[in-house]
Amino acid sequence: MEATRAFAATDAAPAARGSGELVRTGEALADLAQALAPVDVEVFAPLEDSLSDWRTPRIAADLGPRFPALLAAAERSLGRGPERNAFNRALVAHLASRLPLRLDARRLPTDVVERVPPALERLRAFLSEPRNGYGLGDEYFLRDVRFAAGWTVPCGSEVIDLRARVSLPASFQIALRARAPRLALRRLLVSEPDPWFAPHTESRHLDEFNETGWETTYRNVASLLRRHTDVVGVVGYSWFYDPALELISPRLAYLRRGPLAGGAVFIRGHTTEFDVRNATAKSRTRRQLYRAAEYTPVGYKMVWLRDDILRWAEGAARVPR
């Protein structure tokens, strides 16, 4: 227990010491990890260490080269079903309890730091109940591990991956469409991919999924960009960037219109089962139009380069609120 709750002591990170709420939430998660774990929580140390490389740009499904193998080995030593479920929930609770130790290294703006304790509390409530399939391959588990490890941070309507990667072909496509030849040149000269921020919708928390919440997200992204000078911009992919929504779901038009007005570019992608499932899940209109073959969801890549989003943020800050 004491090892798990060490951040509350004098060696805690300054961000943790400065926020009683953050410390209290971390301690509650540490208690939950201790209560859930079918093994000693010291077993989690190698798994936590394998997630320390937060600066490497990765796709969202990538938890690094070591973590999946370590987790699979740990699961093999457990019984099936409830015991593995408890292990994985305890692991995430343990990782999350120690997130305050990692926050200072992430150089987060104040508004983002203040969003961490409520996000941790929501995670604690979620982990307090069993969930079938909570492990590798489960979307919630993947997102919870990334957040608990400090790879992803809450920014408003969206959570933001602090280091996302774009493939080589996509990098050239972006360079062409965004008229940014320096991106293509750097991608050719540097072996490592450029780091990007990437937004993701957290389906368990949609309270801020509105125009104001998205504006808050992008303001926070701009603040993050000022602190993370190596990040080249924001890249996202979703069916809700589809221009067809201007007519089909005009209340969602702001999702594309806002970034577009700020200099973002949009690149047409494809229609996948994921796009169809998400586009039709909560809208009877889109569901009916899709079934009638009058609407096909299409995913679009949104690319907003750092100079453009910083310029947008400066202009937005001058607008009276």
Structure in words:
50% of the residues lie in helices and 10% in strands. The protein has 321 residues and is mainly alpha-helical. The protein folds into two domains: 1-132, no CATH class; 155-321, Aminopeptidase (3-Layer(aba) Sandwich), CATH 3.40.630. The strands form two sheets. The protein has a three-stranded antiparallel sheet. The chain has a three-stranded antiparallel sheet with strand order 4-6-5. Residues 1-18 have low confidence and may be disordered.
Task: Explain briefly what this protein structure is.
The chain has 321 residues and is mostly helical.
Domain count: 2
Low-confidence runs of at least 5 consecutive residues: 1-18
CATH domain topology of the largest domain: Aminopeptidase
Order of adjacent strands in the largest pleated sheet: 1-2-3
| Percentage of β-strand residues | 5-15%
Query: What is the distance, rounded to the nearest whole angstrom, between the alpha carbons of the first and last residues?
Result: 47 Å
Tell me the structural class: mainly alpha
What is the CATH class of the largest domain?
Alpha Beta
Q: Identify the quaternary structure here.
A: single chain
Instruction: Tell me the CATH architecture of the largest domain.
Output: 3-Layer(aba) Sandwich
Biggest sheet: strands, sense, closure?
3 strands, antiparallel
| General shape | globular
Question: Helical amount among residues, as a percent range?
Answer: 40-55%
- Average pLDDT, to the nearest integer? 90
From the alpha carbons, calculate the radius of gyration and give it in angstroms: 20 Å
Helices, by number, come to 16
